[in-house]
Amino acid sequence: MRKSTSRIVGILAVGSFVVATPSTAQREYVSPETMTAEALYGLSCAACHGADGSGLHPDNPLYTSFDSPPADLSDPLFNSREPAADWAIVIKYGGAKIGLSSQMPAFGEAMTDPQIDELVTYIKSLADTERFPPGDLNFVRAVDTIKAFPEDEALIINRYVDSDEGSDSFRSTLYYGRRFGARHQGEVKLAHINRDGVSELDEAEIGWKWAIRHDLAARSLFSLGLEAAFPIADDDASEEIIPYFSFAKGLSDDFTLQTSVKALLPVDHFDDGEAKVSAILHWMRSPWPRSMTPALEATISAPWSDADIDATLIPQLYFGLSKLGHVALALGIEIPLTDLDYDYRIHSFLLWDVADGMFWDGW
Predict the structure, then answer these.
(1) What does each C-alpha distance from 324 to 42, 99, 108, 361 come to in angstroms?
(2) Global pTM?
(3) I need a surface site. Which of 1, 107, 314, 341 has the fewest CB within 10 A?
Protein backbone atom coordinates (compact mmCIF):
# COMPACT_ATOMS: atom_id res chain seq x y z
CA MET A 1 0.00 0.00 0.00
CA ARG A 2 2.94 2.35 0.29
CA LYS A 3 3.30 4.90 -2.47
CA SER A 4 -0.36 4.29 -3.37
CA THR A 5 -3.73 5.85 -2.70
CA SER A 6 -7.26 4.51 -2.76
CA ARG A 7 -10.64 6.18 -2.77
CA ILE A 8 -13.18 5.32 -0.08
CA VAL A 9 -14.99 2.24 -1.37
CA GLY A 10 -16.41 0.75 1.82
CA ILE A 11 -17.74 2.06 5.14
CA LEU A 12 -19.60 0.51 8.01
CA ALA A 13 -23.32 1.22 8.15
CA VAL A 14 -25.80 -0.62 10.39
CA GLY A 15 -23.39 -3.56 10.68
CA SER A 16 -22.97 -3.96 6.92
CA PHE A 17 -20.74 -2.71 4.16
CA VAL A 18 -21.93 0.19 2.06
CA VAL A 19 -20.35 0.15 -1.39
CA ALA A 20 -20.00 3.55 -3.02
CA THR A 21 -17.92 4.66 -5.99
CA PRO A 22 -17.26 8.22 -7.21
CA SER A 23 -19.27 7.57 -10.37
CA THR A 24 -22.49 6.19 -8.91
CA ALA A 25 -24.85 6.68 -6.01
CA GLN A 26 -25.95 3.03 -6.15
CA ARG A 27 -25.57 1.21 -2.82
CA GLU A 28 -25.41 -2.47 -2.03
CA TYR A 29 -25.65 -3.82 1.52
CA VAL A 30 -23.63 -6.95 2.22
CA SER A 31 -23.12 -8.78 5.51
CA PRO A 32 -19.35 -8.99 6.08
CA GLU A 33 -19.17 -11.79 8.65
CA THR A 34 -19.01 -14.70 6.19
CA MET A 35 -17.25 -12.97 3.30
CA THR A 36 -14.13 -14.54 1.85
CA ALA A 37 -10.94 -12.52 1.42
CA GLU A 38 -11.54 -12.49 -2.34
CA ALA A 39 -15.04 -11.09 -1.81
CA LEU A 40 -13.70 -8.47 0.60
CA TYR A 41 -11.15 -7.44 -2.01
CA GLY A 42 -13.81 -7.19 -4.71
CA LEU A 43 -16.00 -5.11 -2.41
CA SER A 44 -13.40 -2.83 -0.84
CA CYS A 45 -10.35 -2.66 -3.12
CA ALA A 46 -11.15 -3.61 -6.72
CA ALA A 47 -12.82 -0.31 -7.64
CA CYS A 48 -9.47 1.47 -7.28
CA HIS A 49 -6.82 -1.25 -7.52
CA GLY A 50 -8.55 -3.29 -10.25
CA ALA A 51 -10.09 -6.74 -10.10
CA ASP A 52 -6.68 -8.30 -10.78
CA GLY A 53 -4.76 -5.74 -8.72
CA SER A 54 -3.22 -4.02 -11.73
CA GLY A 55 -4.72 -0.62 -10.85
CA LEU A 56 -6.67 1.79 -13.02
CA HIS A 57 -5.89 2.38 -16.68
CA PRO A 58 -5.37 6.09 -17.55
CA ASP A 59 -8.47 5.86 -19.77
CA ASN A 60 -10.63 5.06 -16.73
CA PRO A 61 -12.79 8.10 -15.80
CA LEU A 62 -11.76 7.66 -12.14
CA TYR A 63 -8.03 7.85 -12.91
CA THR A 64 -7.76 11.63 -12.63
CA SER A 65 -9.63 11.72 -9.32
CA PHE A 66 -6.63 10.37 -7.41
CA ASP A 67 -3.74 12.30 -5.91
CA SER A 68 -1.52 9.59 -7.42
CA PRO A 69 -2.46 6.42 -9.32
CA PRO A 70 -3.43 3.43 -7.14
CA ALA A 71 -0.63 0.92 -6.80
CA ASP A 72 -0.24 -1.99 -9.21
CA LEU A 73 -0.64 -4.84 -6.72
CA SER A 74 0.03 -7.38 -9.48
CA ASP A 75 3.60 -6.07 -9.92
CA PRO A 76 5.76 -8.74 -8.20
CA LEU A 77 8.50 -6.29 -7.20
CA PHE A 78 6.10 -3.84 -5.54
CA ASN A 79 3.97 -6.61 -4.06
CA SER A 80 6.91 -8.50 -2.59
CA ARG A 81 8.95 -5.64 -1.15
CA GLU A 82 6.17 -4.43 1.18
CA PRO A 83 5.83 -6.24 4.55
CA ALA A 84 2.39 -7.74 5.15
CA ALA A 85 2.24 -6.00 8.54
CA ASP A 86 2.56 -2.58 6.86
CA TRP A 87 -0.34 -3.34 4.53
CA ALA A 88 -2.47 -4.48 7.47
CA ILE A 89 -1.81 -1.14 9.21
CA VAL A 90 -2.82 0.81 6.09
CA ILE A 91 -6.02 -1.19 5.64
CA LYS A 92 -6.97 -0.91 9.30
CA TYR A 93 -6.06 2.73 9.99
CA GLY A 94 -6.10 4.35 6.53
CA GLY A 95 -3.46 6.02 4.43
CA ALA A 96 -3.14 9.27 6.40
CA LYS A 97 -1.98 7.44 9.54
CA ILE A 98 1.06 6.10 7.75
CA GLY A 99 1.93 9.12 5.65
CA LEU A 100 -0.13 8.20 2.58
CA SER A 101 -3.10 9.95 1.01
CA SER A 102 -6.35 10.29 2.96
CA GLN A 103 -8.02 8.84 -0.14
CA MET A 104 -6.98 5.44 1.22
CA PRO A 105 -9.77 4.77 3.76
CA ALA A 106 -9.61 3.07 7.15
CA PHE A 107 -11.41 -0.28 7.32
CA GLY A 108 -10.72 -1.02 10.99
CA GLU A 109 -14.37 -0.62 11.96
CA ALA A 110 -15.64 -2.57 8.97
CA MET A 111 -13.31 -5.58 9.18
CA THR A 112 -11.94 -7.66 12.02
CA ASP A 113 -8.20 -8.11 12.43
CA PRO A 114 -8.38 -11.74 11.14
CA GLN A 115 -10.31 -10.52 8.08
CA ILE A 116 -7.66 -7.87 7.42
CA ASP A 117 -4.91 -10.48 7.70
CA GLU A 118 -6.77 -12.75 5.28
CA LEU A 119 -7.28 -9.82 2.91
CA VAL A 120 -3.57 -9.01 2.97
CA THR A 121 -2.77 -12.65 2.22
CA TYR A 122 -5.14 -12.53 -0.76
CA ILE A 123 -3.63 -9.28 -2.05
CA LYS A 124 -0.16 -10.83 -1.78
CA SER A 125 -1.41 -13.68 -4.01
CA LEU A 126 -2.25 -11.28 -6.86
CA ALA A 127 1.39 -11.34 -8.06
CA ASP A 128 3.78 -14.19 -8.72
CA THR A 129 6.44 -13.36 -6.12
CA GLU A 130 8.04 -16.79 -5.75
CA ARG A 131 11.49 -15.57 -6.88
CA PHE A 132 11.32 -12.31 -4.90
CA PRO A 133 12.48 -12.07 -1.27
CA PRO A 134 9.42 -10.96 0.74
CA GLY A 135 9.43 -7.58 2.45
CA ASP A 136 8.68 -9.35 5.73
CA LEU A 137 12.41 -10.24 5.71
CA ASN A 138 13.49 -6.65 5.09
CA PHE A 139 14.79 -6.02 8.60
CA VAL A 140 16.17 -2.82 10.10
CA ARG A 141 19.63 -1.82 8.86
CA ALA A 142 22.55 -2.18 11.28
CA VAL A 143 25.63 -0.02 11.82
CA ASP A 144 28.12 -2.73 10.81
CA THR A 145 26.35 -5.98 9.87
CA ILE A 146 25.72 -6.21 6.13
CA LYS A 147 22.01 -6.27 5.29
CA ALA A 148 20.83 -9.38 3.45
CA PHE A 149 17.77 -7.85 1.77
CA PRO A 150 18.31 -6.16 -1.64
CA GLU A 151 17.11 -2.55 -1.45
CA ASP A 152 16.78 0.80 -3.21
CA GLU A 153 18.20 3.22 -0.66
CA ALA A 154 20.56 6.13 -0.16
CA LEU A 155 22.53 6.79 3.03
CA ILE A 156 24.93 9.22 4.62
CA ILE A 157 27.09 7.13 6.96
CA ASN A 158 29.30 8.83 9.56
CA ARG A 159 31.96 7.53 11.94
CA TYR A 160 33.88 9.50 14.55
CA VAL A 161 36.95 7.81 16.08
CA ASP A 162 38.31 8.89 19.45
CA SER A 163 41.84 7.54 19.09
CA ASP A 164 44.34 6.98 21.89
CA GLU A 165 47.11 6.59 19.34
CA GLY A 166 47.41 9.50 16.92
CA SER A 167 44.65 11.90 15.93
CA ASP A 168 40.91 11.61 16.09
CA SER A 169 39.13 11.32 12.75
CA PHE A 170 35.73 11.84 11.18
CA ARG A 171 34.75 9.73 8.16
CA SER A 172 31.63 10.32 6.08
CA THR A 173 30.42 7.95 3.37
CA LEU A 174 27.81 8.49 0.68
CA TYR A 175 26.09 5.20 -0.16
CA TYR A 176 23.61 4.30 -2.89
CA GLY A 177 22.10 0.85 -3.43
CA ARG A 178 19.94 -0.04 -6.43
CA ARG A 179 17.91 -3.21 -6.77
CA PHE A 180 17.97 -5.14 -10.04
CA GLY A 181 15.36 -7.77 -10.85
CA ALA A 182 14.11 -10.19 -8.24
CA ARG A 183 17.23 -10.92 -6.21
CA HIS A 184 20.11 -8.59 -7.04
CA GLN A 185 21.41 -5.23 -5.84
CA GLY A 186 24.29 -3.05 -6.99
CA GLU A 187 25.88 -0.45 -4.75
CA VAL A 188 28.43 2.36 -4.79
CA LYS A 189 30.16 4.15 -1.90
CA LEU A 190 32.37 7.23 -1.72
CA ALA A 191 34.11 8.01 1.58
CA HIS A 192 35.59 11.31 2.78
CA ILE A 193 37.83 11.65 5.85
CA ASN A 194 39.00 14.50 8.05
CA ARG A 195 42.15 13.66 10.02
CA ASP A 196 45.06 15.71 11.34
CA GLY A 197 43.37 18.81 10.01
CA VAL A 198 43.44 17.37 6.49
CA SER A 199 40.15 16.81 4.67
CA GLU A 200 40.25 14.53 1.60
CA LEU A 201 38.52 11.77 -0.31
CA ASP A 202 39.44 8.49 1.32
CA GLU A 203 38.03 5.55 -0.62
CA ALA A 204 35.57 4.42 -3.30
CA GLU A 205 33.73 1.10 -3.36
CA ILE A 206 31.50 -0.81 -5.71
CA GLY A 207 29.56 -3.93 -4.81
CA TRP A 208 27.00 -6.53 -5.80
CA LYS A 209 24.56 -8.52 -3.65
CA TRP A 210 22.59 -11.64 -4.55
CA ALA A 211 19.77 -12.95 -2.35
CA ILE A 212 20.27 -16.63 -2.98
CA ARG A 213 17.55 -18.16 -0.82
CA HIS A 214 14.56 -17.06 1.24
CA ASP A 215 12.02 -18.93 3.32
CA LEU A 216 9.06 -16.90 4.56
CA ALA A 217 7.74 -19.71 6.74
CA ALA A 218 11.10 -19.92 8.53
CA ARG A 219 11.51 -16.12 8.29
CA SER A 220 15.04 -16.46 6.93
CA LEU A 221 17.06 -14.94 4.09
CA PHE A 222 20.57 -15.80 2.82
CA SER A 223 22.64 -13.53 0.57
CA LEU A 224 26.08 -13.53 -1.03
CA GLY A 225 27.97 -10.40 -2.00
CA LEU A 226 31.21 -9.04 -3.36
CA GLU A 227 32.70 -5.58 -2.90
CA ALA A 228 35.81 -3.93 -4.29
CA ALA A 229 37.44 -1.02 -2.42
CA PHE A 230 39.78 1.48 -4.09
CA PRO A 231 41.90 3.75 -1.85
CA ILE A 232 42.17 7.40 -2.88
CA ALA A 233 44.00 9.29 -0.13
CA ASP A 234 46.68 6.72 0.75
CA ASP A 235 48.96 5.94 -2.19
CA ASP A 236 50.52 3.05 -0.29
CA ALA A 237 47.24 1.33 0.47
CA SER A 238 46.12 -1.63 -1.59
CA GLU A 239 42.83 -2.24 -3.32
CA GLU A 240 40.69 -4.74 -1.43
CA ILE A 241 38.37 -7.51 -2.55
CA ILE A 242 35.64 -8.18 0.03
CA PRO A 243 33.49 -11.29 -0.44
CA TYR A 244 30.76 -11.78 2.15
CA PHE A 245 27.84 -13.87 3.30
CA SER A 246 24.85 -12.38 5.14
CA PHE A 247 21.91 -13.95 6.91
CA ALA A 248 18.65 -12.57 8.35
CA LYS A 249 16.28 -14.42 10.66
CA GLY A 250 13.04 -13.42 12.34
CA LEU A 251 13.23 -14.96 15.80
CA SER A 252 9.74 -13.86 16.82
CA ASP A 253 7.33 -10.96 16.31
CA ASP A 254 9.54 -8.93 18.64
CA PHE A 255 13.12 -9.86 17.75
CA THR A 256 15.18 -10.17 14.56
CA LEU A 257 18.73 -11.46 14.12
CA GLN A 258 21.11 -10.48 11.32
CA THR A 259 24.69 -11.59 10.81
CA SER A 260 27.39 -11.25 8.17
CA VAL A 261 30.77 -12.85 7.58
CA LYS A 262 33.24 -11.12 5.30
CA ALA A 263 36.87 -11.38 4.26
CA LEU A 264 38.94 -8.24 3.61
CA LEU A 265 41.57 -9.27 1.05
CA PRO A 266 44.22 -6.68 0.02
CA VAL A 267 45.04 -7.32 -3.61
CA ASP A 268 48.78 -6.64 -3.17
CA HIS A 269 49.25 -8.74 -0.02
CA PHE A 270 46.51 -11.17 0.95
CA ASP A 271 48.46 -12.14 4.09
CA ASP A 272 47.54 -8.76 5.62
CA GLY A 273 43.83 -9.47 5.24
CA GLU A 274 41.33 -10.37 7.92
CA ALA A 275 37.99 -12.04 8.52
CA LYS A 276 35.18 -10.19 10.25
CA VAL A 277 31.98 -11.52 11.79
CA SER A 278 29.18 -9.15 12.79
CA ALA A 279 25.79 -9.90 14.33
CA ILE A 280 22.93 -7.74 15.58
CA LEU A 281 19.76 -8.35 17.57
CA HIS A 282 16.94 -5.82 17.06
CA TRP A 283 13.98 -5.45 19.39
CA MET A 284 11.00 -4.62 17.19
CA ARG A 285 9.08 -2.96 19.98
CA SER A 286 6.47 -1.30 17.73
CA PRO A 287 4.85 -2.27 14.40
CA TRP A 288 4.66 1.38 13.34
CA PRO A 289 7.35 2.67 10.95
CA ARG A 290 7.73 5.93 12.90
CA SER A 291 9.16 4.47 16.10
CA MET A 292 12.39 3.76 17.96
CA THR A 293 14.10 0.37 17.60
CA PRO A 294 16.89 -0.53 20.03
CA ALA A 295 19.59 -3.05 19.11
CA LEU A 296 22.82 -4.61 20.29
CA GLU A 297 25.52 -5.47 17.77
CA ALA A 298 28.79 -7.38 18.22
CA THR A 299 31.81 -7.65 15.92
CA ILE A 300 34.81 -10.00 15.90
CA SER A 301 37.83 -9.47 13.61
CA ALA A 302 40.61 -12.02 13.06
CA PRO A 303 43.69 -10.98 11.02
CA TRP A 304 45.22 -13.75 8.90
CA SER A 305 48.77 -13.04 10.12
CA ASP A 306 48.00 -12.46 13.81
CA ALA A 307 46.66 -14.74 16.50
CA ASP A 308 44.95 -11.85 18.26
CA ILE A 309 41.19 -11.46 17.87
CA ASP A 310 39.55 -8.05 18.18
CA ALA A 311 36.00 -7.67 19.48
CA THR A 312 33.59 -4.78 20.00
CA LEU A 313 30.03 -4.10 21.10
CA ILE A 314 27.80 -1.49 19.43
CA PRO A 315 24.61 -0.61 21.31
CA GLN A 316 22.46 1.48 18.98
CA LEU A 317 19.08 3.05 18.35
CA TYR A 318 17.22 3.26 15.04
CA PHE A 319 14.60 6.01 14.66
CA GLY A 320 11.95 5.97 11.93
CA LEU A 321 11.56 9.69 11.24
CA SER A 322 8.77 9.80 8.67
CA LYS A 323 5.32 8.22 9.05
CA LEU A 324 6.24 6.00 6.12
CA GLY A 325 9.44 4.99 7.88
CA HIS A 326 11.31 5.53 4.62
CA VAL A 327 13.53 8.17 6.24
CA ALA A 328 15.37 6.99 9.34
CA LEU A 329 18.28 7.88 11.61
CA ALA A 330 20.55 5.48 13.52
CA LEU A 331 23.00 6.27 16.32
CA GLY A 332 25.46 3.91 17.97
CA ILE A 333 28.64 3.83 20.03
CA GLU A 334 31.28 1.15 19.41
CA ILE A 335 33.03 -0.03 22.57
CA PRO A 336 36.23 -2.12 22.29
CA LEU A 337 36.24 -5.37 24.25
CA THR A 338 39.91 -6.02 23.42
CA ASP A 339 43.00 -3.81 23.21
CA LEU A 340 42.42 -1.58 20.17
CA ASP A 341 43.96 1.73 19.09
CA TYR A 342 40.84 3.78 19.90
CA ASP A 343 38.80 4.46 23.01
CA TYR A 344 35.45 4.42 21.23
CA ARG A 345 33.77 5.10 17.90
CA ILE A 346 30.51 6.97 17.35
CA HIS A 347 28.44 5.79 14.38
CA SER A 348 25.41 7.29 12.69
CA PHE A 349 23.56 7.07 9.42
CA LEU A 350 20.69 8.90 7.77
CA LEU A 351 18.73 6.56 5.50
CA TRP A 352 16.31 7.27 2.68
CA ASP A 353 14.42 4.27 1.27
CA VAL A 354 14.10 5.55 -2.29
CA ALA A 355 11.51 2.97 -3.34
CA ASP A 356 8.93 4.31 -0.87
CA GLY A 357 8.79 7.84 -2.23
CA MET A 358 10.62 11.14 -2.26
CA PHE A 359 12.54 12.23 0.83
CA TRP A 360 9.86 14.80 1.75
CA ASP A 361 6.88 12.42 1.28
CA GLY A 362 5.05 10.72 4.09
CA TRP A 363 5.90 12.97 7.05
Answers:
(1) 26, 5, 19, 8
(2) 0.86
(3) 341
Alpha-carbon 256 to chain mean position: 13
Please give the chain's pLDDT, 363 residues, in tens: 444 433 333 333 323 343 434 443 344 545 556 688 899 898 888 888 888 988 877 777 777 777 777 888 999 999 999 899 999 999 999 988 888 888 888 888 888 899 999 999 999 999 999 999 999 999 999 999 999 999 999 999 999 998 766 678 899 999 999 999 999 999 999 999 998 888 999 999 999 999 999 999 999 999 999 999 999 988 888 999 999 999 999 999 999 999 999 999 999 887 889 999 999 999 999 999 999 999 999 999 999 887 789 999 999 999 999 999 999 999 999 999 998 888 899 999 999 999 988 999 889
Distance CA 220, CA 272 (A): 33
Contact between 256 and 231 under an 8 Å Cβ cutoff? The reply is no
Contacts 24+ apart (CB under 8 A), 67-74: 67/5, 67/101, 67/103, 68/3, 68/4, 68/5, 68/101, 69/4, 69/5, 70/4, 70/5, 70/6, 71/1, 71/2, 71/3, 71/4, 73/49, 73/123, 73/126, 73/127, 74/50, 74/126, 74/127
Q: Spell out the domain ranges in the chain.
A: 10-124, 135-356
* Beta bridge partners of residue 281, listed in sequence order: 257, 296
Burial of 44 (0-12, 13-18, 19+ CB in 10 A): buried
Sorted by sequence, the CB contacts under 8 Å of residue 112 that are 6+ apart come out as none
**10-124 sits in which CATH class?**
mainly alpha
Distance between CA atoms of 63 and 227, rounded to whole angstroms?
Answer: 44
Q: Write the burial class of residue 95 (CB in 10 Å: 0-12 exposed, 13-18 middle, 19+ buried).
A: buried
Give the CATH superfamily of 135-356. Answer: monomeric porin ompg (2.40.160.40)
* Residue 335, beta-bridge partner list: 313
What's the rounded Cα separation, in Å, for the pair 179 and 148? 12
